[in-house]
Amino acid sequence: MTILWSIILCEIVGLVVSKQVTFENHKVFKITMTTSMETELLNRLTKISDGFSFWRASSVSKQVELMVAPHKLPEFYEMMAQIQAPYEVCIENVQTLINRTTPANVSMEFDFKNYHPLDTIYKNLHDLTKQYPNIVQTIVGGKTYEGRLIIGVKVSFKANNPGVFIESGIHASEWIAPATAMYIFHQLLTSNNTEVRALAESHDWYIFPVFNPDGYEYTHTTNRLWRKTRKPYGSGCYGSDPNRNWGYKWNTGGSNNHPCSEIYAGPAAFSEIEIKSMSEYINSISDKFYAYIGLHGYSQLLMFPYGYTTDRVDNYDNMYDIGMKAITALAKRYGTNYTVGSIAETIYVASGNSNDWIKGVYNKSIVYVYELRDKGQYGFLLPPEQIIPTGEETLDSIIAMLKEAKTLKERL
């Protein structure tokens, strides 16, 4: 859900012919926009320029994080002098961090010391299905434009438990999300912690680590910062934002109609086969789960519907209270601070997202989306040594979330 707003047309065309996009000496700046005029000028510049792209843009906090190509630095500094918005460098060289998150010699064996490509993740899902045949079931939830399967797992220790659905990796560049989903999956199977064991064995778990396999594979082979799907839309434009393509209040705000935009909603709701087929799978099990949790990166936010409007959801107070319990538990281990609120009120308006669809169509009571670590020091390029700490604290918060949800339900 975090926005890499506008990787420009000529750069996208370059992806078709180049083997690996480089971001050598690209810098990321954190800018505080104090007036609407400043925001409008910056937005206009990124739309017409070939060297600026938003990593994060919060219309609520007025904080933006902007990546600037080296040849555009003089123009950027001139613009900052004109609008006099406070700014600071948060990443000196994007490629240095890319190299750090994609080491040259990664073992094909799955671990939590590295970020892994799609094949390694899928192999691990299959391996654990074989290792725990009475507990883990491999699921094919959908397919992709390029013909890949969207593979997940169902973890069930006994029949007819209440269900929890975990969606991850819908935005391809957010590698910490699939890694965290995989960490949770492993802990549900292997942890000796009594709270984890109780949670694992009292629920059925539907976990899909990579909702956007084509885009995720592309980040490993060609462009580390790719966000969207990979369906061609002509004029060198590829993909739509799969978290703007769901069919509830589709394209009513916080999305774009231009196919090259990073928040392109697609030509119609469910136009992307990934989202269409996954929506059909979710519909087939909609009576099997009561909680839906999305994992994204980055910003350290725990949010709930709605994204399409600032109007508050019917169970807003309960969602907020549960969220506060969850982030309090999350902070205990490492002191990581999160903010709780609805999507539109906490970060920005974003219509056509999966959480709104789950709430709007099925009226599930527990629907949250995490923007995981960090707050901008690394952005999408979180070092792999933070995979385990992120997984640990996220699982801590999910334990607290579902406990509090149960407590509130029993009080009613």
Shape: globular
* Beta-strand fraction estimate: 15-25%
Number of strands: 12
Helicity, as a percent range: 25-40%
The number of helices is: 13
Distance linking N and C termini: 33 Å
Residue windows where pLDDT falls under 50 for at least 5 positions: 1-18
Radius of gyration from the alpha-carbon trace, in angstroms? 20 Å
Order of helices and strands: HEHEEHEHHEEEHHEHHEEHEHHEH
Largest sheet: 8 strands, mixed
Task: Provide mean pLDDT, rounded.
Answer: 91
Going by helix content, strand content and strand pairing, the class is alpha/beta
Strand order of the largest sheet: 5-6-8-7-9-12-10-11
Please explain how this structure is put together.
The chain is built from 13 helices and twelve strands. With 412 residues, the chain is of the alpha/beta class. A hairpin with a 5-residue loop joins strand 2 (52-57) and strand 3 (63-68). It has an eight-stranded mixed beta sheet with strand order 5-6-8-7-9-12-10-11, sandwiched between helices. Helix content is 38%, strand content 18%.
